[in-house]
Design brief:
Distance between the termini: 26 Å
Radius of gyration: 16 Å
Number of strands: 0
CATH class: Mainly Alpha
Mean pLDDT: 87
Low-confidence stretches: none
Shape: globular
Order of helices and strands: HHHHHH
Oligomer: single chain
Length: about 170
């Protein structure tokens, strides 16, 4: 997978995030498609591809949403760092690591965003922060449970070369 493909996928995820996701809420929960995409790309392909996805996806989200410019990029870069650490942990497989990374980073991402937003524009008026973060994280994890193993299989099938193991 090339860096260009990672960036184009992130832009597509950001456009879907801005247009379609508001209509796909379940009980008020909305997944963050750019975060899901960037974390899966980081775990499956590598950190450099995840960084490209976070940068381009975050810029598009910040341009389309009324957020301080660069705040989403920063949150996604923190999430990519966490996903890179999770990808290096000894686990049974990359498919499980993708789901675990999306779960943990979708819990951490909104907390970091609220701190960044509070520093730039003032505190967010949220009555129960965990009550709004946990359903979104579970929704994102459900999507990652479907997309993560598919991404691992596709990357293994089309992009990894077979090598002789000595």
């Amino acid at each position: 997978m090339s860096l260009t493909l990672a960036a184009v996928g992130a832009v597509a995820a950001a456009l879907l995030q801005s247009t379609i996701v508001p209509y796909l809420d379940i009980g008020g929960a909305r997944p963050d498609l750019v975060l899901i995409y960037a974390v899966i790309v980081t775990v499956v392909v590598g950190t450099d591809h995840g960084l490209a996805a976070a940068l381009f996806g975050g810029i598009i989200i910040d341009a389309l949403a009324p957020r301080p410019f660069g705040s989403t990029v920063f949150v996604l870069l923190v999430a990519i760092g966490g996903a890179a650490v999770i990808a290096r942990l000894p686990a049974r497989g990359r498919a499980f690591s993708t789901v675990l990374a999306v779960l943990l980073m979708s819990l951490l991402g909104p907390l970091v965003f609220s701190v960044v937003y509070g520093a730039l524009r003032g505190p967010l008026a949220v009555a129960n922060p965990l009550g709004s973060i946990v359903p979104d994280a579970l929704y994102a994890t459900a999507i990652a449970a479907l997309a993560g193993p598919a991404a691992v299989h596709a990357h293994t099938r089309f992009f990894e070369k077979e090598r002789i193991d000595w």
